[in-house]
Amino acid sequence: MMADSVEDAPRLTEVVPGLLRIRIALPFPPTEVNAWLLRDAEGWTLIDCGVDDARTRALFEAVFTDPLLEGRPVTRLLITHFHPDHVGLAGWIAERIGVPIHMSRVEWLQARLILADPPERALDAYFAQYVRSGAPESFLTFLRQRGLLYRKWVGALPYSYTAIREGDTFQMAGTSWRVITGEGHAPEMVCLYSAERGILIAADQILARITPHIGVHPADAEADPLGAYLTSLGKFEGLPDDTLVLPSHGDPFTGPDARITALRDHHEERLGRLMDFCATPRTVMETTQVLFRNLPADQIGFGLSEALAHLRHLVARGDLREESDADLWRFVR
Ligand SMILES: [Zn+2]
Predict the structure, then answer these.
(1) Cα-to-centroid distance, 47 and ligand 1 (Å)
(2) How far is the CA of 297 from the centre of ligand 1 (A)?
(3) Distance, CA 212 to ligand 1 centroid (Å)?
(4) Can you give the pTM of this predicted structure?
(5) Per-residue pLDDT tens for 37-47?
(6) Measured distance between the N- and C-terminal CA atoms of the chain, rounded to whole angstroms
């Protein structure tokens, strides 16, 4: 039995021979993230690493000498995508133990770009998107005061990395793993599938109890990330029902197709509700009340990005049209 609270959970558990799970506490929702260790001839590949804070650094100092690693070193760091809970500590680990970081090119560039940009620039872009979404003044003031948090949780990254592409294969945990990339939650998220072992390392593409956040990013404000997500989910369909899915958040589970169907139904149901609601022109902020039962003040930004992603997808499908002016986006059936 897995302990329910990450604080009480053992640091490392063996999922299957040669594959270990690390449960890492997060300072923000969804409160914990999984990292994975896969053994190969030379040592271990570490997949993902949590945020860069004192607690996570201390955790990894203990992990590196844990008896379950059998005295073998971590020889490779693989990061699934650019979000803080996955890449945050990567720079520190790479330097601490002298290993290269493997990432897809888009995820790597995205992380390096956000870290390289002056933070005010990104904040201005977020601010403009939330204003056009009809965000309340109280949230805009809160955002200006708080600022963006990416740099708070993501440490500096080295100058160079090793690129991973769709279709690449890795030999780990006694088997071969093929890279499948997911889109929509992040632009080129790396997932790994072993047909022989029947295991999918799913990153944030397919989660057990929560749905991955799909939001419109102000750097690409006209995009349809929900369309990209639903399309890329197709790459994960048709895997055997006994496939063990290792999600980045929550416990491993079997039956990827059933979960993918539930994720598709979830989005379809929300799209339907939005279509009904947009009988008259609606701002993005107005539509959040249809999508979220309650939206805590510090989560309004996520809510607006997610609502906008659903609205944009309905426009892309031809079910809604945009009736916007310079100040506000509005969507109507
Ligand atoms: Zn995540």
Answers:
(1) 12
(2) 21
(3) 8
(4) 0.94
(5) 999 989 999 99
(6) 49
